[in-house]
């Protein structure tokens, strides 16, 4: 069973639908027992950084996630805001402390807004820079994005920042730190290539 | 390179897929689920789905869930959204983005609240426009009431309040298939820095190219895909021919 973190923000149903199509059972939950039972954890999300952290705290989800991900080392996938919340801190709507599982900051795009409209919405090319199991067998690397903030990891080594994309600046599009994965795009909304990413993740 | 999106727009009334002409004469053109399945199979970039009855009959989460269950591409849902709770209902039903229209015109603070909680990327402000005495004015309640607002000013206000996208529809062009209102697109896309989706008037692939040349970040179309042989993929081939990036599979 794959636990999909429910923190009252955004579209979590689409991740469950995508898992169902892959023949996997996804449970949208904020119940600690489900995370203990789960083999994998997916942390989806749209929304604002401070609200995301507040919802996690109010639902007392942080201790159980830390136990299952950092101690039990279950495969974990953060999507979009779910990736950004991994950062040490976020700059959206004032300075907010993040989960801090990945050293870095979630900050706004630093680009010329005359030439690059924000949010960055739509399908864009991703270049995969190292062998990350998430991208195994993915031949078309055009994915769907919808965001104005990016996670800038402190460690820019290609084994941490495993994929990148260019939109006025080059930004971390996928990160990996041992069992912790994050993608800035939406695999659950990226049709075939996205479903392959999710399949690679649940096969870990 | 960020691709130019080509977005089929589906509207529903009395549980049927309908297509209007100038926001009137809604013609029943079949099953919305069948249409959603076709567009999913065609791997379209995105989908816009508007429930025209939601304004009077209330939001129907079960109908919306039926749609999003078939969609493995991003979906904007709209119709009858007046509060942040309504927005949560649509998101819980599987929306990636929510379109605000009359609700935002009547309570502009709704845009601020929506963007603050869900992020700007989730908030599409849908703007229906008609030229009145040489000025583009914004209409509400399905294009039936003049809000008294000028379009560029409203688009800028929506952006300042946190909208992430403008869905710009020329009411007089809707269903006419003679081309988008290019002046309107130029006016609004130069007034804001958020993406503008052009809507209303597409009858050929070339019309879509013209809209993008005029500043649209994406094009939405309904009649073009319902009544002609043109598919979203053909539109994208045409865009590429004119030097605009598009996603071809």
What does the model show?
The complex is a heterodimer of chains A (204) and B (249). Chain A is an alpha/beta fold and 204 residues long. Helix content of chain A is 25%, strand content 30%. Chain A has a single domain (2-202), classed as Rossmann fold (3-Layer(aba) Sandwich). The two termini of chain A are 13 Å apart. Chain A is built from 6 helices and 14 strands. Chain B has one domain (5-241): Alpha-Beta Barrel (TIM Barrel), CATH 3.20.20. Chain B has 249 residues and is α/β, with parallel strands linked by helices. Chain B has 11 helices and 12 strands. Chain B has an 8-stranded parallel β-barrel, surrounded by 8 helices. The longest helix of chain B is centred in the middle third of the chain and has 11 residues, at 151-161. The A-B interface holds A 8-11, 13-14, 17-18, 21, 46-48, 51, 81, 92-93, 113-114, 117-125, 140, 142, 144, 146-148, 167, 186, 188-192, 194-195 and B 1-5, 43, 45-46, 65, 68-69, 71-74, 88, 91-97, 115-122, 164-165, 193-195, 217-218, 247, 249.
């Amino acid at each position: 069973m794959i636990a999909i973190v429910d923190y009252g923000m955004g579209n979590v149903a689409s991740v469950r639908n995508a898992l169902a199509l892959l023949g996997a059972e996804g449970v949208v939950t904020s119940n600690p027992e489900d995370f203990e039972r789960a083999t994998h954890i997916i942390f989806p999300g749209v929304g604002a950084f401070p609200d995301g952290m507040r919802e996690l705290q109010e639902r007392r989800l942080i201790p159980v996630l830390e136990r299952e991900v950092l101690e039990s080392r279950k495969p974990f996938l953060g999507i979009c805001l779910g990736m950004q919340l991994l950062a040490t801190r976020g700059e959206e709507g004032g300075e907010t402390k993040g989960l801090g599982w990945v050293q870095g900051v979630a900050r706004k795009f630093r680009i010329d807004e005359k030439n690059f409209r924000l949010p960055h919405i739509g399908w864009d090319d991703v270049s995969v820079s190292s062998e990350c199991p998430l991208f195994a067998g993915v031949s078309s690397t055009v994915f769907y994005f919808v965001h104005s903030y990016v996670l800038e990891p402190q460690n820019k080594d290609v084994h941490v920042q495993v994929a990148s994309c260019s939109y006025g600046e080059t930004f971390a599009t996928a990160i990996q730190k041992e069992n912790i994965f994050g993608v800035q795009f939406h695999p659950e909304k990226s049709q075939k290539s996205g479903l392959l990413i999710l399949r690679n993740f649940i096969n870990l | 390179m960020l691709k130019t999106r080509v977005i089929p727009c589906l509207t529903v009334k009395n549980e049927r897929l309908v297509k209007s002409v100038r926001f009137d004469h809604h013609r029943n053109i079949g099953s919305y689920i069948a249409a959603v399945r076709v567009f999913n199979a065609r791997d379209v970039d995105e989908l816009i789905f508007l429930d025209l009855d939601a304004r009077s009959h209330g939001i129907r989460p079960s109908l919306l869930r039926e749609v999003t269950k078939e969609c493995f591409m991003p979906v904007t849902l709209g119709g009858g959204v007046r509060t942040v709770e309504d927005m949560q209902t649509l998101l819980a039903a599987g929306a990636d983005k929510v379109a605000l229209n009359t609700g935002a015109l009547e309570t502009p603070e709704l845009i601020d609240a929506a963007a603050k909680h869900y992020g700007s990327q989730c908030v599409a402000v849908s703007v229906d426009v008609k030229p009145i005495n040489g000025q583009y004015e914004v209409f509400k309640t399905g294009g039936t009431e003049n809000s008294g607002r000028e379009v560029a000013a409203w688009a800028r206000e929506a952006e300042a309040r946190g909208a992430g996208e403008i869905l710009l529809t020329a009411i007089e062009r809707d269903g006419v298939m003679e081309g988008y209102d290019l002046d309107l697109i130029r006016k609004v896309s130069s007034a804001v820095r958020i993406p503008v989706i052009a809507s209303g008037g597409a009858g050929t692939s070339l019309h879509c190219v013209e809209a993008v040349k005029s500043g649209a970040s994406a094009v939405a179309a309904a009649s073009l895909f319902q009544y002609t042989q043109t598919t979203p993929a053909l539109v994208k081939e045409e865009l590429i021919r004119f030097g605009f990036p598009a996603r071809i599979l």
